[in-house]
Design goal:
CATH topology of the largest domain in chain B: D-amino Acid Aminotransferase, Chain A, domain 1
CATH architecture of the largest domain in chain A: 3-Layer(aba) Sandwich
Order of helices and strands of chain B: HEHEEHEEEHEHHHEEE
Strand order of the largest sheet of chain A: 9-8-11-10-12-13-14
Number of helices of chain A: 16
Low-confidence stretches of chain A: none
Low-confidence stretches of chain B: none
Number of helices of chain B: 7
Structural class of chain B: alpha+beta
CATH architecture of the largest domain in chain B: 2-Layer Sandwich
Mean pLDDT of chain B: 93
Oligomer: heterodimer
Largest interface: A-B, 24 and 35 residues
Strand content of chain A: 15-25%
Largest sheet of chain B: 6 strands, antiparallel
Chain lengths: 465, 204
């Protein structure tokens, strides 16, 4: 048996030059059909080999094979969607045929108590030292290499555009719904990995791969449990020094706490241990799925800052007050403008504008008034970060305002987030801003919470408490 | 897991430079009086069969006169009969201060964890605690303190902060280097010029 590597190599899974789809079928109800359809539909540029034991010539118009052994060409990845009981045999054929990697979509293993069958799968994978994702998973998606092993019909899911956020999900259900939402949040995807039972490739392998992956700037992660605790800590220490990881833990059970002998044991159940690890090693903890998306956008686009003095600029007074409250709820403070900034604003702002934070530019503020205020805040050393509230229902707010916010939000050395809420006119401008790299939020609390996550992470990177 | 003898725990703390109130086993009312040296003491009956001493009526607090000590000793040993075998521990009364819990637990997945929070009777009510994986750095200790809602109660000034951070680092080191699997120092009383661990529970 070949020596086991510390980390599995996922390169052949993410960037295969050729793919065998085992379980491919002309029958549109079969999962293998949907997977193959997606490969063709998305214009995957490599070779596709449909494999089906019952095949009689072609599947979806392409030459089909009864086994990977019949292909007689290099296969980088086998996507396996056949009944669970024959998966180990199929995987063994893949090993014999020299297939470099596999994704096992099929369910029916340890998740339903079929541990022996999963052990058999692991044994085969180890025999050939083959990296295998799954079983019981959606697999992977990579908009750059156009690899998509997901069995989700393309018309049912908004495929994310290309970007810098990688999304890892133990669960396929969480994976597909969050993936569907990514597109409407206006940021792009680097890699998606749904790894199911983690029988062979586990979270430690995946984090190790994404740490080295140049396309991945931010990781969002839905985890239920880490298989290798010590190695998980080891990789966590390294990766969070390089890129932010936003994490959410599912399955917070306190089994066993009832039998504890001490206060401490009762207080630190399994969930407490995960929280401790996340906090200690620099993960950003998301409390719900929406946080994963909210934090991802600010991390992907905005610079780090360890200061927590936030300036608020608004064209609506009440929203400015709510945003100020939201700052303090999230451990941030409202900045105080320098004397120079006050003087400058007094010169440029109309008399109806009271020169103090939160700076209410009034309901008739246009892009010029916003830009003047923003250029003052940009220079002010008492301001570490900015929240701009742009209510597009007001007469002065239009596409020129969105363009100005894009200008500042993508060039400033300080992080800036925007709050805009409203209907279709607002939505159109949100999309403009988000696709240009300015994070936009629907509520003051989401904006402040996301900014706080960015600041906490920045402090961790600098070793500040 | 088995409970480590109280006085053995007391010695382990001492070895790692962690202060705890002066304690000794006493086998008679006379020995208890002798231990007090004229100061107020506490008597506790300790038994593997009684996990909650105060709930089982096995603690007598603030005993100052010889007469009080003698009568408390006799009453305590009578009540403790149902938890046999037991020992009687005498301790000097701790000074007043803020009650803190410092604890340790061993997680199947991640190994030894250390915990700190507001202690004493508030542990269960507020659950204001912070946890990290051992070993902890000074930064980790500081971030544990800052994570607590009660951090200003536990460490109202720089000197108190330094004390609690030092205690946390020492406890982490002790927990890491021993076979102890679960640990409660609850409460540790933080007062204006020091601290003392008052109750020790260690399991290995």
């Amino acid at each position: 048996m070949p020596k086991e590597k510390k980390y599995a190599n996922l390169e052949f899974i993410m960037h295969p030059k050729s793919v065998a789809i085992v379980g491919a079928s002309d029958n549109a109800d079969k999962i293998g059909h949907i997977i193959m359809h997606n490969y063709i539909d998305e214009g995957y540029p490599g070779r596709i080999y449909p494999i089906n034991i019952k095949s009689t010539g072609t599947i979806m118009g392409r030459k089909a094979y009864k086994s990977v052994l019949d292909v007689k060409a290099k296969i980088d990845l086998a996507v396996i969607a056949v009944p669970a009981e024959i998966v180990p045999a199929v995987l063994d054929e893949c090993g014999k045929a020299g297939v470099k990697s596999a994704v096992v979509i099929s369910g029916g293993f340890a998740e339903v108590g079929n541990v022996a069958l999963q052990d058999e799968l692991v044994r085969v994978a180890k025999k050939y030292a083959m990296p295998v994702i799954g079983p019981n998973c959606l697999g992977v998606m990579d908009p750059r290499s156009r690899v998509d092993t997901l069995f989700l019909p393309t018309f049912k899911i908004d495929k994310p555009s290309i970007g810098g956020v990688s999304f890892v999900s133990q669960s396929g259900a969480v994976g597909s719904s969050v993936l569907d939402m990514i597109n409407s949040e206006g940021f792009g995807l680097a890699r998606f990995i749904s790894y199911g039972n983690a029988a062979v490739v586990d979270e430690v392998d995946i984090l190790n791969y994404l740490m080295r992956d140049k396309e991945t700037k931010v990781i969002i992660f839905y985890i239920e449990g880490a298989k290798r605790g010590k190695e998980f800590i080891e990789i966590a220490k390294k990766i969070t020094k390089i890129k932010p990881v936003v994490i959410i833990k599912g399955g917070i059970t306190e089994a066993g706490a009832g039998a504890a002998h001490s206060h401490t044991a009762a207080l630190t159940g399994s969930a407490g241990a995960y929280e401790a690890v996340f906090r200690q090693f620099g993960f950003s903890i998301a409390n719900d799925l929406k946080d994963l998306l909210n934090f991802a956008k600010v991390f992907e686009t905005q610079p780090l800052t360890t200061g927590n003095r936030v300036a608020i600029i608004t064209n609506g007074g009440g929203t400015g007050v709510l945003a100020t409250d939201a700052l303090y709820k999230n451990g941030l403070t409202l900045a105080t403008l320098s004397k120079e900034s006050e003087e400058e604003l007094k010169k440029t702002m109309p008399s109806i504008v009271n020169v103090r934070l939160p700076l209410d530019l009034a309901g008739d503020a246009d892009d010029k008034r916003f830009s003047e205020a923003l250029s003052v805040m940009e220079k002010d050393e008492n301001v570490d970060a900015l929240i701009v509230i742009a209510l597009f229902q007001t007469p002065g707010a239009d596409s020129k305002l969105a363009a100005s916010l894009i200008q500042f939000g993508t060039t400033m050395k300080k992080p800036m987030v925007v709050i805009s809420m409203g209907g279709s006119y607002t939505q159109a401008h949100r999309t403009m801003m988000e696709s240009s790299g300015v994070p936009v939020y629907s509520s003051p609390n989401e904006a402040a919470d996301s900014l706080a996550a960015l600041i906490d992470y920045s402090k961790y990177r600098k070793g500040i408490v | 897991m088995t409970l480590i003898d109280y006085m053995e725990g007391y010695r382990i703390l001492k070895k790692y430079g962690i202060n705890s109130v002066e304690s000794a086993y006493v086998e008679s009312a006379d020995e208890a009086v002798k231990f007090s040296k004229g100061k107020s003491i506490v008597l506790k009956a300790i038994s593997q069969n009684a996990l909650h001493k105060s709930r089982s009526g096995l603690v007598a607090l603030n005993l100052s006169s010889d007469r009080e000590i003698r009568s408390a000793y006799n009453a305590l040993t009578k009540r403790a009969q149902e938890f046999k075998p037991f020992k009687v521990l005498a301790q000097h009364m701790a000074k007043n201060g803020v009650e803190v819990i410092i604890g340790g637990n061993t997680d199947q997945q991640f190994g030894k964890l250390i915990l700190m929070g507001l202690g004493g009777i508030y542990v269960e009510t507020f659950k204001d605690v912070a946890t990290r994986v051992c070993p902890i750095s000074r930064r980790d200790a500081m971030s544990m303190l800052m994570q607590l809602k009660s951090h200003k109660v536990i460490a109202p000034d720089a000197a108190a902060e330094k004390r609690v951070i030092g205690l946390l680092l020492k406890t982490s080191k002790m927990f890491e280097n021993t076979n102890i699997k679960e640990l409660d120092l609850n409460p540790v009383i933080m007062h204006s010029n020091g601290y003392e661990a008052v109750d020790i529970r260690m399991l290995d």
